[in-house]
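User: Here's a structure from my thesis project, written as structure tokens. My advisor, Dr. K., wants to see whether a designed sequence matches the one we expressed. Can you design one independently, without my sequence as a hint?
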């Protein structure tokens, strides 16, 4: 059986440590990208909530205008007979 020298063992360990360091950096990059995606999704959800609030507000205004218009039509007696 071949004898394993201390230099060979040290070289192999250094390669493993280098690979581990590269994987650790890559994992950190992936975590940063995931965090950016999560922030983007949160921003989209905020935008959607703001849009829903604006739509509800506009619908309420339209309902009020429709009611006011119906009252004006009744006062002026221009409502259809139907």
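Assistant: Designed independently from the structure alone:
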């Amino acid at each position: 059986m071949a004898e394993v020298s201390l230099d060979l063992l040290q070289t192999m360990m250094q390669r493993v440590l280098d690979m581990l360091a590269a994987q650790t950096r890559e994992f950190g990059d992936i975590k940063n990208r995931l965090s950016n995606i999560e922030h983007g999704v949160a921003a989209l959800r905020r935008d959607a909530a703001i849009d829903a609030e604006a739509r509800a507000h506009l619908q309420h205004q339209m309902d009020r205008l429709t009611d006011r218009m119906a009252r004006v039509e009744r006062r002026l007696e221009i409502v259809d007979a139907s």
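When you compare it with your expressed construct, this may help: Residues 38-74 form one domain.
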